[in-house]
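Consider this:
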Amino acid sequence: MKRMHSNKLLLTAIAVLSIAACSENSGNTGSAGSAAGAKPLPDVADSGSMSAGKPSAPITMDYEVLGKAFVGLPVAINIRVRATQDTGPIAVRYSINDASALRFQEGQVEQRRYSDRSDLDMQQVVVVPQREGRLYINVSAEVQTPGGSMIKSMAIPIQVGNAPVQPQINGELKVGPDGETVISMPAQEN
């Protein structure tokens, strides 16, 4: 009984000392007890700001592929680009990485700068597929913000013809000792 009473007393003393130590440090904003040259930390709770998180351009992008795409026939894509904040001009650029698979229709504008937001909302891009499978057109929009230039990009998939979508697997599928399927990627010497 006496031992249990002393344990309670010891725990109470530790709790009181911990609280006292914390309250001493919370009021410390650069007094003599601080490290030399150390700046006080801002009070985040009072700043009214949230975590910055990952920066993202103030732009939204959406698309719609019109109709079914076939090799050699033009396919139209409606692309909507919108600024989510009041920003300056927006430069929109369309590009194709593999010209042997997809090309722009003759006369298609590949880059345009929009200073009037009413022109920006909907654009139509016309491409001509050169083979079956899943092909991509890239869209990027650049805007000037108070924090500098920001770009948002998107790859638009276009399924051409009736070829099934087959993911490309690198390596070899193997079953591990615990029964889980893994992809074995052997090392290659240079």
